Amino acid sequence: MGVVFGARFLVMLAACCAGAAIAARLAEAGASALWSGAPPLLPGLVFVLIWNAGLVRGGVVLARSLWRSALLNRRIRGNRLPVGARLGGMARLCGLEGRVTLIGAAAPYALTYGFAAPRVLVSTGLLRLDDAELTAVLCHEREHVRNRDPLKTLLARALPAFLFFLPYLRHLRHRFTAARELAADRGAAAVCGTRPLAGALLKVSEGPRFAAGATVAAMGAGDLLDLRVAQLETDRPVSPPAAGRRTAVVSAAAAAGGVFLLGWAAWIVAAYPAPCALA
Questions:
Q1: What CA–CA distance (Å, rounded) separates 163 from 172?
Q2: How does DSSP classify residue 236?
């Protein structure tokens, strides 16, 4: 992760320097410098514009996710109920003591929320499950808590928006979502067995409408039901489907184009270094 952020910082620095160099060169030579001179500025300008568009898109997605997560936290704080002896005891057995919040709702759902100290939200409707199924749900959510999946989900949302020209990253986001649920199922099945987990999986809903858009990890199967049931039936790890050839080819071409434009921007910075002296 440190390497990724280090690379992003270097590219951002190159974009800033290239932007400053292009602005200075245009002020000096006029618009003709976009397609004349050594090097012409147009490819570097395209790089700067794409980079800034990605920054805006990624920032909007990040801000929206944080805002909706804050609204979710506020909603939960205003409607939380006493956990009670049964749920509290099961939470303790599952290693979630002090990390479970109960909220009044008829729909049976559970989800993990929070970035720094993740917690598990449980609806009163979920308490209708029998003890074995409820324990399986809590063990599933415990895996999300241990892995800090809400925080990882936040990053998985922002990165494809930032690098919007790489469709393969959107596939990786969906693959990550599937992989985290399959891994949480395996962790829960190892403790509780497959039968209670399968029973819970068929009874639990996807979550409340007020959690839509917030960064959470929910027990509800959604469009992953077939994949998760297949894993429980075979008792073997299941991998999410791979990306299609078109997605891979388009992403590879876009990545190659990005490297070309980055190299051109570096050429511009080397040719007109004065504006980047402070960088």
A1: 12
A2: S
**Which pLDDT does position 223 carry in this prediction?**
74
Residues paired with residue 87 on neighbouring β-strands, in sequence order? none
pTM of the full predicted structure? 0.84
User: To 10 degrees, the CA torsion angle through 188, 189, 193, 199?
Assistant: 80
Sign of CA dihedral 258, 5, 58, 175: positive
The number of domains in the chain is 1
Transcribe 78-126 into DSSP letters.
HHEE---HHHHHHHHHTT-TT-EEEE--SS--EEEE-SSS-EEEEEGGG
Separation CA 200–CA 188 (nearest Å): 11
Q: Looking at residue 218, what is its pLDDT?
A: 76
* 30-51 burial code (b ≥16 CB/10 A, e <16): eeebbeeeebbbebbbebbebb
pLDDT mean over 120-124 = 96
Q: How many other C-beta atoms lie within 10 A of the C-beta of residue 250?
A: 15
Query: Coil, helix or strand for 232?
Result: helix
Per-residue DSSP letters for 2-23?
HHHHHHHHHHHHHHHHHHHHHH
- Give 7's pLDDT tier (boundaries 50, 70, 90): low
Q: Which residue range is the domain that position 112 belongs to?
A: 2-276
The residue that leads in pLDDT, 36 or 174, is 174
Render pLDDT for 152-187 as a digit per residue (tens, 0 to 9). 999 999 989 999 999 999 999 999 989 999 999 999
What is residue 277's predicted lDDT score, i.e. its pLDDT?
Answer: 47
